[in-house]
Amino acid sequence: MNVIHRRGWEIPEREATPEELVFNRRALMKGAGLIGAGAMLPGGALAQGADPSAGLYPAPRNERYRLDRPPHTEDVTGKYNNFYEFGSTKFIWDAAQKLQTRPWTIKFDGLVEKPREVDIDTLLKAVKLEERLYRLRCVEAWSMTIPWTGFPMKQLLDFAKPLSGAKYVRMETFLEPKIAPGQRQTWFPWPFVDGCTIEEAANELAFMVTGAYGKPLAKQFGAPLRVHMPWKYGFKAVKSITRVSFVAERPKGFWEALQPAEYGFWANVNPAVDHPRWSQATEEVLGTRDRIPTVLFNGYGEFVADLYKGLEKEKLWM
Ligand code: MTE
Fold it and tell me: Is 291 a member of any domain?
C-alpha cells in the first residue's frame, strides 16, 4: 500500500512532534490575525445565506449530550479542517467554497427495500433536526468540540429501510476532480468512503450532520451532509455524502485502503493503544496549547461500550 503520499496528519517520523508543528502554524496564523474573534473568510464565505435550508436553523438543542468544556468557535474549527478533496493541508476552507451543495442528491442503494435517489432538501423535511454538543478526537491527537445540528443516524436507517441481510452502512463522497483538486491526485483511492456496522449506525450517538453553529453546515465541514460518530477517530466522519449503501460485506475505508497497517475499520478512540507512529494517550485542544488526557471511547463509553462485547478479537482501536 502506498505510504509515500502522506496525509497532513501523517507526519513522517523525522518530524517527532507533529502537534508542535501544527500549533506553531496556528500560532503563526494567529499572529497574522487569521485566527481570532470575528475573523471571517473573504466575502463572508463562512456565512451560508443562499442555502435553501437556512430556515431550519437553529434547531432545538438536545441537552442529553453535554460537554466538559466550552465549544470551539467557528473561526477556529472552520479554518482547520481535513478535507483531502481540497488539499492535504489543514487550510482548505477557501478552496472548499467551490463545492456546489445545491442541487445535491443522495443515492440509497444496496440491500434496501427500494433503491432511490433523494434530494437533500427532501431528506431534511423527512427528519427531525436537533443540535448536539459533541467532541471530535482526530487520530492525529488533537480535539475539538462543536455544536453540530443534524439528526440521529437511526432516522436515516428508518428512511432508507435496509433489508435484514444488510450488516454495514457504506458512505461515499462526491467525485468531481474539476472542482476538487485533491481528486486529481490519482494515488488516493477516490472517492472518499467509510462505513460502520448497522448496530453502530442505530446507536443513539451516531449523528448525520447538516449544520453547525446554528446554521447550515459550512462547506469545509462537509456540507450538505456528513456523519459524526464521536466515539471514533475523526477520519471515520465522511463529509459531503452522495451515496449511502447497505451491504453485507465490511466496507474498506479510504484511509484503510491507503495504509491498512495504521488505519482500520473500527477506529474507536483508546488512549491505551498508540498509533504505530505516535502516542494516543493525550490530545491537544484545538486552538490552545492545552494537552489533556484522552478518554476511552472519547468519553462516550456509557453509550457505546456494549456494541463491542464479543468483538475483543477485532482490531477495535485502529
Ligand atoms: N471526508 C472527506 N470526504 N474527505 C476527507 O479528507 N477527512 C476526515 C473526515 N472526513 C475527510 C473526510 C478526517 S481525517 C477528519 S479528522 C475529519 O473529516 C475532519 O473533520 P473537520 O474538518 O470537520 O474537523
Answer: yes
Q: Give residue for cell 453553529.
A: 213
Query: Which atom of ligand 1 is the closest one to the Cα of 136?
Result: 24
How many independent structural domains does the chain possess? 1
Per-residue model confidence as pLDDT tens digits over 199-229: 999 999 999 999 999 999 999 999 999 999 9
User: pLDDT tens, 240-278?
Assistant: 999 999 999 999 999 999 999 999 999 999 999 999 999
Q: Which domain holds residue 46?
A: 13-307
Residue 109, domain member (yes or no): yes
Give the CATH number, domain containing residue 86. Answer: 3.90.420.10
Give the C-alpha distances (Å, rounded to integers) separating 244 from 7, 144, 229, 299. 25, 26, 16, 28
Could you say which DSSP state residue 27 is in? Answer: H
- Pocket probe mutation, ligand 1, options 11, 235, 283, max atoms within 8 Å of Cβ: 235
